[in-house]
Each structure stands twice: as C-alpha cells, then as structure tokens.
Amino acid sequence: MCATRQTFTKSIQNTTSSDEELMEKRLELLETKIASLENESKTQPVLFYAIVNSRSFTLNTDSTIVFETVVINEGYHYNKYDGVFLAPQDGIYMFSWTVSSVNANCIMTELVVEENVISSTGEKEVDNGVYSSASMTAICRMKKDEHAFVRTTGHTGSNYIYSQDNVQRTSFLGILIKAG
C-alpha cells in the first residue's frame, strides 16, 4: 500500500472575505480610538501656577523671569527651566503674575506673547525697608505653539526680585479660558 500525501496551500494573495471583514473591523476600531485620543487632548485642562521660591536676585532689562517651582501644571505646557508657556491650541488665555521687591529696589515687568507686549506692571521708587508687590492680569488670544512669558522691561537698568515664604511671593499663572 502506498500512502498518499495531501498538501494544502494557501497563497497570501487569496484572502477570504472573513479575513477582509476582520481587518476592516480592526481598522475601524483603531480610527475610533485615534479620534477619541484627539478629542481627549482638546478637552484636557490647560493651566499652570508657578512661583519663585525663597530667593532674591537681580535681572537686567528684557530678561525672562523663570518661575522655577511649579505648584500645578495641567497639560505640562509651562516650562520651569526657561519660564515659557507654550500654547497647546488656539484659544483665549488668561495670565496673571505678581512680582515682589524690597527696600529701594524696583522691578518692572511685562507679559509677552511672541514678542508682542500684552500688558505690564511693576514697582518703582519703593521706600527703604518696605516690601512691595505689583500684580497684573491679562487676557489674550493665542494660536497653537505660540509662546508666553514674563520678562523685565527696559524702564530700569536692573530689576530686583524678592520672593520669600513668609512675606510675599513672585508668581505666574496661566489658564485656557476658551478653546478655538
């Protein structure tokens, strides 16, 4: 008796309709997941609050203030190493900052978005032995990937920042108010 051997082969060219249906379903699931992730990134809160922590220093004119201690940074769009906020999407943003000084020193600052000065604040001619602070809140429209930061102005030669736990803090915050 001779044994017969049967061989079954299938070419990669010959896909069955069930294989195609399975691939289409998997593709639809992937597309749905991608759309969900894109929507989720648009609805994530965008806000940060950072401070200068217990130190004092002098900055020259047009120097970016680095608020190195991050209290909250939802979305991680504020960079504590360079002091710059990067807008994750088009929208209307609100920024607020406080700068503090002491004695007869002065501090003059401005909020800058892509080299456009939005607003400014500061303290000049403070009495000796006095702690002083100046604050400002500004609202502006930003486009995705634009930068916002607080810097010293050209109104004085040097700007003295004094930020302490038990007196006053120098701080910066930003929040996306309305997307789009």
Automatic annotation (TrEMBL):
Species of provenance: Mytilus coruscus (Sea mussel)
Keyword Hydrolase appears in the UniProt entry: no
Keywords assigned by UniProt, alphabetized: Secreted, Signal
C1q domain segment(s): 41-180
A GO cellular component entry from the record: extracellular space
Record localization: Secreted
Transmembrane segments: none
Name of this protein: C1q domain-containing protein
Pfam assignment, any one: C1q
